[in-house]
Amino acid sequence: MSMTQELLKARTSLENNLRELLGVPVFLIEMDAFALPCGCGGVTINTRGLQLDDLEVFEEHILKYLTDTATSLDIEPSFLFARLIPGTAEIASINARVLCNSCYMDFGRGSGKQPRPDIYIMRFDRRK
Amino acid sequence: MKLYVPHIGHFEGLEELLAGSDNIYAVYMAGSPEYVGTGRTNLSTPKLDEIAQQTEYAHSKGVKMEIVLNSSCMGGQHLTPEGYRAIDWYFDKLNSIGIDSITVADPYLVEMLAKDYDMDVVVSVLSFVDTPQKAEFYEQLGATTIVVDPAVNRHFDKLEAIKDTVSCKLKLLVNEACLYQCPFRYAHFNFFSHANGPGPKPNVLDDYYYYKCLSLRIKDPQQIIKSPWIRPEDLKEYKHITDTFKIGGRTHFVNWILNNVEAYANERYDGNLMDLLDSIKDLKDTFYIPNRELDGAIEQWKKCDKVCHKCGYCKRLAEKVIHTYSGSGEDIRKIPLGSIGDRI
């Protein structure tokens, strides 16, 4: 399967899972694979209709779905997070990111689920 | 019937648009944001020479040209000596080009245009004219045409009162599809006006209002039905108010615009209503609403007193007709809304 076919399949599967879980036609408007100059890479999934309380209540399930999505795309699910519109309950995207050393240090220094107002961490695997 | 049709702003787009339909009475596009911004996002910012070339071309095809300068907030810049001079200079240039009409939202610009220029003065939907009293004020300021706030598209008593009160022309925006009684309306258009105006431009994280707008509909799809769009089939119910209708959609591809023109010109559309709606285009791959299944709904809306919690008509209608798409590409299915659920 080509990368785009993989992404299409993963987007549909994740969307269906979230809809079934939440009982709302949550819309995954776009799923993008990304590679950053710093060395980070992964996928970002732009969401519409997904909110922070959905995440807080169903985090265990959503984390599993996102882990499965990342794994299906051969992305190590070591850093999974949602990006919020700061000060609101709106989730702009959910992300699976393999951190470069520099970005790992940035996030590694922080603690808790929200190191920044726009980041809600679902999973952060600390390196030894 | 006179259809005002959005134009994305470059010459090739205009050629394609006018080649695609004989039902276009006028096209409208944004001007240059260096002078007065606009309350919507734009795909282009045509300079004066481009506007002149396109105006000449439109006129050669018998089509009128309207420039939209409907910033809902200019931060007071238009009231400064420098701001006034810049806007006055720009209006003068547009007048010389032969622009037929200018749409503005600020009452000051309405009066300024009416006093000093020959172009028709159109009051934007972003002036939020929703009562006969407001319409009267704008007419006194010199408005040639008022585009009525779509929020009252289904308040026939108000539309008729506005019609009876003023002698200027009225225009109805048919497919904006903003939320009915949207709480973000003023803030969102003010944000757009600054983002698409002379500057300084805000470096924003996200368009919060748009995210929220889509979220509300996803959580509660009846909001799509309540939104005061006018279906092509229902234009006949408005012809005692006006014969002039405006299609929204300056940021869409020409084929999307032409599909709308055909639907409204023929007063019929057999596809997904979502295809026609402007502001929620991102949800057209989420919701399927067979337009023809909404035949007759206008009869309820004509007598509706908008007390939704007592009535429930739109909620029932949404449950009956709205489907959600599941999957993607060729493997796409339509699922009735009821099976997805509604937490409201």
From TrEMBL, chain A:
**What lineage is this protein's organism placed in?**
Archaea, Methanobacteriati, Methanobacteriota, Stenosarchaea group, Methanomicrobia
Where does this protein come from, organism-wise?
A: Methanococcoides methylutens
UniProt-recorded name of the protein: DUF5402 family protein
Highest rank taxon of the organism:
Archaea
- InterPro entries under this entry? Uncharacterised_MJ1658
From TrEMBL, chain B:
> In its keyword annotation, does this UniProt entry include Protease?
yes
Q: Which GO terms describe its biological process?
A: proteolysis
Q: Quote the InterPro entries the UniProt record gives.
A: Peptidase_U32, RNA/ubiquinone_mod_enzymes
Domain of life, source organism? Archaea
GO MF term set: peptidase activity
Which Pfam families does this entry report, sorted A to Z? Peptidase_U32
Q: What is this protein called?
A: Protease
Which classification does the entry list for the species? Archaea, Methanobacteriati, Methanobacteriota, Stenosarchaea group, Methanomicrobia
